[in-house]
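Box 3.1. Reading complex inputs
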Amino acid sequence: MVSVNEPASGLVVGVDSGGSGLRVALAEAASGAVLETFSSREPVRTGPDGISAGHFLEQVLPAVAALRERTGARPVAAAAVGAAGMATLGDELRAELPRAFEEAWGVRRLALAADAVTAYAGALGQRPGAVVAGGTGLIALGTDLTAWRRADGWGHLLGDCGSGAWIGRAGLEAAMRAHDGRRGGSTPLLSRAEKLFGPAAGLPGLLYPRTDRPAVLASFAPEVGRCAAADPVAAGILARAGAHIAEAAEAVCPAEPGAPVALTGGLFRMGEPLLAPLRSALGELLPGARTAEAAGDPLAGAVALAAALATGTLRLPEDPSLLRLFGAGAA
Amino acid sequence: MVSVNEPASGLVVGVDSGGSGLRVALAEAASGAVLETFSSREPVRTGPDGISAGHFLEQVLPAVAALRERTGARPVAAAAVGAAGMATLGDELRAELPRAFEEAWGVRRLALAADAVTAYAGALGQRPGAVVAGGTGLIALGTDLTAWRRADGWGHLLGDCGSGAWIGRAGLEAAMRAHDGRRGGSTPLLSRAEKLFGPAAGLPGLLYPRTDRPAVLASFAPEVGRCAAADPVAAGILARAGAHIAEAAEAVCPAEPGAPVALTGGLFRMGEPLLAPLRSALGELLPGARTAEAAGDPLAGAVALAAALATGTLRLPEDPSLLRLFGAGAA
């Protein structure tokens, strides 16, 4: 077991669990340098109470054991887990993980974080600022290192404004408008939608029975990006998306001049058709902030959290629904 | 069996089957005057192929038998069935109903109609014009008596713009924006949402696991109406809803000057907060049309269709996905 008096002597474990799978990294506690990683495309099962702790541990414990063998089984000083929906759905995880990790590796310092927090720590480390994580959904998280502020991330019916699902949904609505002869329609988007999904009138029958409707909607977002240069309706959708994303960043960004705002996640790989209006909206709503490159991804963020726990240098604030600390690392 | 030469001698059956239940009327073929009605709050079961024909017939055949006993078992000259989703989902119904009705009552003239068509026939009879049917969803249907034009009705993710689900969803988004401190938020809507659903942060957990998400969203629409007088955000949502509804009407309304536009369905019971911006948008987009009172409901429309079939006076156009005719009444 690692003693509290030698916090940085060993390794740390970082875990990123989300809809697209599970990733685990083993890193040096002192430097945060990653030594080995494991990844699986099988997402951890979720039930009504959130992530299944059993399924999570079934995957994580052997993965860490294998990684540790390859690094000489040095002691694990701390672990950090970032998981989608940790905030509202992770009761089972919170109840079972601390003991399971302690039993398996003797690790007592543990952080459980919402995936938005690991995205933040990956993008900006422990600096104050704001991070917008965009993919199928969209959430903005900001901190002045005293408390967190969160905006959006409410899902495709209540928000996620400007997300992949939001852009794709707006694009498909514009396609159906063109199909009907209603104002606001886009013939190029109708043509793209019919190439992807078949005749427009069949789209409801394809979409509504699916359980992954937000992902189906988001799958159309790149088409909106591709049409934007020549189609004013598509360009208008991305201008509104850029404004929504900037509004979320504005709501969470600390007031300090020069606060960094980082954009992270697959949404921003759409490139200039989205980034140009977004930069313009950020310039208008947050003239004092500066756009920062995201330094790393959520797995890097989990490693950074674990390393900060191990070395007693954690500055990001605890929060009951965003970042929970257990064991000797807890405040 | 009713002969083709005495089309108006008997009775007609009208059926309205939808999400809120089943209604059946027995009426005079010659006048369309309703003699008896039956209603059940149990909606007909639907599966992947649409309405269950077995469940539908289990309810309709005994109901019609009971109504006929009370009217002296006079012959049935024609029947018309309006059903939600007939357009895309009614294969089983189309395959089984004609024979089942002929076996039960000797009736050979049958119309199967999308619920939007029975709404049209109930509201405007057989005149050319446009009808907007609004509730949880929203669809506009228009005809010049040569062909039908349809706009929207694509469901809460692809359209139904201006519907109850659309208004409620926009209201809840505004509530979440206020919760986050984002622009475009409404504190009055946040307060109404928390009174109805509890703390805002718990709303995703309440909404997304439901299978009747559109109905949950639509349940918030009346709150948007109530807030509109004092809250500019709520008023803005209803102004956009009014514009969307007028756009759907514009897309389907025949060009003839003075064409009637009727609004029907529970959505419009929201009253002036929605109707005032809607009238203004209709005046702008359809200056040549006139708003008409809906004469009757979809059950009255089904009766009107059946009476027209029985008397050989059907003027509304056949359409493979909106109005199908079977037996001697078919063109």
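In summary: Residues 113 and 197 of chain B are 37 Å apart (CA to CA).
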